[in-house]
Design a protein that fits this description.
single chain, Gyrase A, domain 2, 5-stranded mixed β-sheet
Amino acid sequence: MILRDRCLLAKFDRSESDQERVRDSTLPHGLTNLTESIDQDLPISVQKPTWSLLENPNRIFRNFKFDNIKSLEDFTMELISYQESVGHHAKIIIENLNIGIETHTHNLNEVTELDLELAKFCDLLYEDVKHYYSRDEEDQSL
């Protein structure tokens, strides 16, 4: 499956205390830059994917919902292949037609650039899989 050339930025939910930590620059550099630039860099309004920042250890999480088992399967296999190619692995939780992705760099117990890249890949892959299967459904209705 080929990812379409598009740049979706992850939005990270934060509590008030987490927002203070961002101002104090205790979160990884890419995380703060990513969230600060979302609204100002986009010329149009798009639905922004949401990643949550979890603590103890610091990590990011997102749940992806799928319409059918085939799209879930394709997403999972592409994600596993990507993780093997970069040597960085997330926790993958599959429940019905939902996949939860949780990632952090284990030896640092922090969110690093590797995790942000993995999150961005997941966002792009999810959009690609949704697009591919929505086109498939359109073709069947003709």
